[in-house]
Amino acid sequence: MAKKISIIGIPMDFGQLLRGVDMGPAAVRYTRLIPRLRDLGYEVVDTGDINIPIRDDNANIARKDRDKNKFLNEITQICESIYKAGKKVVQKGHFPLFLGGDHSIAIGTVSSVTNKEPAGLIWIDAHADFNTPQTSPSGNIHGMPLAALIGEGHESLVNVGRKGAKIHPDNIVMICQRDLDTKEKLRLKKTGITIFTMRDIDEQGISSIAHKALMKFVHLKKFHLSVDMDALDPVEAPGVGTPVPGGISYREAHLLMEVFADSGKLSSMDLVEINPILDIANKTSELAVELILSALGKSIL
Q1: Catalytic site residue 202?
Q2: Cα-based distances in Å from 98 to 47, 113, 178, 209
Q3: Residue from 13, 49, 74, 273 carrying the catalytic annotation
Q4: Fewer CB in a 10 Å sphere around the end CB: N or C, the chain?
Q5: Which of 49, 102, 152, 230 is an active site residue?
Q6: For the chain, what are the domain ranges?
Q7: Catalytic pick among 228, 258, 279, 286
């Protein structure tokens, strides 16, 4: 019987000021994601997109609490919908593949896939996304999802799906970080989360990092993979919302995906922050699809 994948699109850009990542799911679908997954032997169901409210920047600016709660209500509502959709897919025994949208969608995706049993989380991103409203320089919620998932930050986000933390810091591995806020660094050090920055990758090599990440999950049956395309160097992936020089290469990214696929424990995935407006000839979406295929078993031989 063919393995089953359910695709859930989340065309949301409420988590940041820059517009465009809401078009990410469409760009990835346009790049023949579904037929290419079927070529790998998967049965694929596209469940469509989560319903997203119209973004009205003027209404948000008019709010008295705009600096503290940027689109908080909208993001909470969307993440609740993601949670319900993801939970339904998991209950069917399918592999949920979430296409973003900005990285705040992970509050809903990770909450949904950890509903029945604990899971590891691999967070591949140039940023830590570990701010709270008290530490964030911008207040943008796409810089806060990982904090919300361990139970810190906006109460409504912490309680998406069910009350409280969705994952323990011991079960999180972060890879590719190279742009962290000052207070965010202090918070990370206090939690003890395993983090492999770009310096670690430069010194140890991507293969070593990938296997060390998996060793953190020997006590778990599964893990969720959250990939922000800005983890890659902007030369490789120019079409992202918040590019940072010095990211991983095309081949390093593929090796990560291939090693994770070989583990047999990858049970769900989200891919976020593609901005087609900033892309060059759909280069970033093409790479994103290739990485998804590698994570789901496509190999050189």
Answers
A1: no
A2: 10, 11, 24, 25
A3: 273
A4: C
A5: 230
A6: 4-295
A7: 228
pTM above 0.85, yes or no: yes
State the catalytic residue, choosing from 13, 22, 94, 103.
Answer: 103
Q: How many distinct helices (H) and strands (E) make up the chain?
A: 12, 8
Does the active-site annotation cover 142?
Answer: yes
Amino acid at 272: V
Expressed in angstroms, the distance from the first to the final Cα of the chain is 23
Specify whether 258 is catalytic: no
Cis peptide bond upstream of 101, omega within 30: yes
Reading the chain (301 residues) residue by residue, the pLDDT tens digits are 459 999 999 999 998 878 899 999 999 999 999 999 999 999 999 999 999 998 876 654 444 444 456 899 999 999 999 999 999 999 999 999 999 999 999 999 999 999 999 999 999 999 999 999 999 988 899 999 999 999 999 999 999 999 999 999 999 999 999 999 999 999 999 999 999 999 999 999 999 999 999 999 999 999 999 999 999 999 999 999 899 999 999 999 999 999 999 999 999 999 999 999 999 999 999 999 999 999 999 998 7
Please determine, looking at this structure, whether the domain spanning 4-295 carries the CATH number 2.60.120.260: no
Q: Which of 49, 125, 152, 258 is catalytic?
A: 125
Per the annotation, the verdict on 228 as an active-site residue is: yes
Q: Is 127 a catalytic residue?
A: yes
Among the listed residues 22, 74, 80, 129, the single catalytic one is 129
State yes or no: is 129 an active-site residue: yes
230 catalytic, yes or no?
yes
Residues in Cβ contact with 71 at an 8 Å cutoff, skipping those fewer than 6 apart? 14, 15, 55, 60, 141
